[in-house]
Design goal:
alpha/beta; Rossmann fold; five-stranded parallel sheet; 5 helices; about 45% helix; globular
């Protein structure tokens, strides 16, 4: 079965790059957004298999969106993508059991995490 994903990042080029790559690999991108509030709205509407989300965004950070999405579905599969490699960010994500993929990212690594 084809997996569905929403891609949320405040950088439009990153969203476009992720979306094109995932579609080429047979993963359906059912929604894209550029801030945390939109991520929550998209999750409610689309109910994707996976959420790819940036941590530092305007109008609701990635952490804010993750918290709200986990309130909707505690088993939601979320993958954090961030250029922030600070220990506190990694520690917070670890407590939430959310994998972190560092920017600049390796697309094959992202595929393996989505398909895990």
């Amino acid at each position: 079965m084809q997996r569905s994903v929403i891609v949320v990042d405040d950088d439009e080029d990153t969203v476009r790059l992720f979306s094109e790559f995932l579609e080429e690999k047979g993963i359906k991108v059912v929604g894209t957004g550029y801030d945390g509030v939109t991520a929550i709205k998209l999750y409610k509407e689309k109910k994707p298999d996976v959420v790819l989300i940036d941590m530092m965004m305007p109008n609701g950070s990635g952490f804010y969106a993750i918290k709200k999405i986990q309130e909707i579905n505690s088993k939601a599969k979320i993958i954090a993508v961030s250029g922030d490699s600070s220990y506190s960010t990694e520690e917070k994500l670890e407590k939430l059991s959310i994998p972190l993929i560092q920017k600049p990212f390796n697309m094959e690594q992202i595929l393996s995490v989505i398909n895990a």
